[in-house]
Every structure is written in C-alpha cells, then in structure tokens.
C-alpha cells in the first residue's frame, strides 16, 4: 500500500471475491427495508454503525449516502434516477496493477458496484416488484429470469392475488 493515503480502502485484485461484492452491494441497497418500514440511512447513528461494522472506511453523512443508494436502487429496478449523483473513487497503481480505491465507506460500495458492472454481474441484481417488499436480490437463475426475491413469499402472494382476481372475474360473468 505504499504511496496511498492513510485510511484509503483497497481491494487487491488477487483477493477479489465476486460474492463479497454482491453481498456488499445488496446489503447497501437493502438499507431501505419497505416491508419493515426501516431505513438505515434515515439516522446518522444507524448508518455509521452499518458502515463501520463492515470495515468499509469512514462513512460520509447519511444525507450524502441516501441519494447514491436511491440512484442505485432506481437503476437496478429499471427506472430513472432523480438526477446525477457522483462520488470519488480513484484508480491507483499498486505494484503496477491498477486498483479501484476509495477514501470512504460509500466509495467502497461504489467500487464494488463498478466491479460488478465490469464483470457482468450487475445485470443480475434486481429489485423485487412486490410493492410491499422491494427487496434487492441477486438472480442466480440460469437464464436470468427470476422476478421475485422469494417465490415462496412474494411470488406466491402475487400468484394468489392473480388467482383471486381471475376467480372474481369468472364469478362476475
């Protein structure tokens, strides 16, 4: 780590683990829990605890992190973000190898998200379409066709709703 400022978080390529990046990005996206009505980024203490508990570097304010999370969630859900959001992530040479480096927790999350984009894994991150869920998940299906975070819960609820609607329509005829 010679030549890097103190506190800069670096993920060595040799140690890169796609599952770690997936887990980190999903955890960040899911700091907003629609089902339970909680938002880790609504309070500085909960955001700080979340970021420091993952050893991501110093967290910026929750007010600065929230629009980044919301923009990522909008992108994953296929919608448009309310505006442009940017964050500083650098590329440093470590022993001649280019590495994404981040000075804080949010930069570390964005570096992980960018690695997922570069490796084609980003397209498999999805948001459950159930209005009472909206949980971010990673689609591990072979043909990338998974829709629900859980077929047993959200998918089953939607199938039951559709069946009841069809039964009501048939009874009304």
Please explain how this structure is put together.
This protein has five helices and seven strands. The protein is α+β, with helices and mostly antiparallel strands and 173 residues long. The strands form three sheets. Strands 1-5-4 form a three-stranded antiparallel beta sheet. Helix 1 crosses helix 4. The longest helix has 22 residues. It is elongated and about 70 Å long. The chain starts with 8 loop residues before the first strand and ends with a helix. The relative contact order is 0.15.
Keywords:
two-stranded antiparallel ribbon; 173 residues; elongated; alpha+beta; 3-stranded antiparallel beta sheet
Spatial ordering of strands, largest sheet: 1-5-4
* Largest β-sheet summary: 3 strands, antiparallel
Radius of gyration: 19 Å
SSE order in H/E notation? EHEEHHEEHEEH
Give the integer mean of the pLDDT values: 86
User: What is the number of helical segments per DSSP (H or I, 4+ residues)?
Assistant: 5
Global outline: elongated
What structural class do you assign from the helix and strand content?
A: alpha+beta
Give helix % range. Answer: 40-55%
Q: Could you name the ranges where pLDDT drops below 50 across 5 or more consecutive residues?
A: none
What amount of the residues lies in strands?
A: 5-15%
Kindly state the number of beta strands. 7
How far the N terminus sits from the C terminus, by CA atoms, comes to 73 Å
Topology overview:
Layout: E1 9-10, H1 18-29, E2 32-33, E3 38-39, H2 44-53, H3 62-76, E4 90-94, E5 97-102, H4 105-118, E6 125-127, E7 136-138, H5 151-172
Antiparallel strand pairs: 1-5, 2-3, 4-5, 6-7
Helix pairs in contact: 1-4
């Amino acid at each position: 780590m010679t030549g890097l400022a103190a506190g800069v978080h670096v993920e060595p390529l040799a140690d890169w683990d796609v599952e770690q990046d997936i887990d980190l990005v999903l955890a960040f996206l899911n700091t907003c829990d629609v089902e339970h009505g909680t938002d880790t980024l609504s309070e500085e203490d909960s955001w700080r605890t979340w970021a420091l508990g993952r050893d991501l570097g110093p967290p910026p304010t929750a007010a600065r992190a929230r629009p980044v999370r919301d923009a990522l969630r909008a992108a994953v859900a296929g919608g448009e973000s309310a505006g442009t959001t940017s964050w500083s992530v650098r590329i440093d040479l470590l022993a001649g190898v280019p590495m994404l480096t981040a000075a804080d927790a949010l930069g570390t999350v964005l570096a992980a998200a960018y690695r997922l984009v570069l490796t084609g894994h980003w397209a498999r991150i999805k948001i459950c379409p159930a209005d009472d869920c909206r949980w971010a998940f990673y689609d591990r299906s072979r043909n990338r066709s998974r829709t629900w975070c859980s077929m047993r819960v959200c998918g089953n609820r939607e199938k039951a709703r559709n069946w009841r609607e069809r039964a009501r329509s048939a009874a009304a005829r």
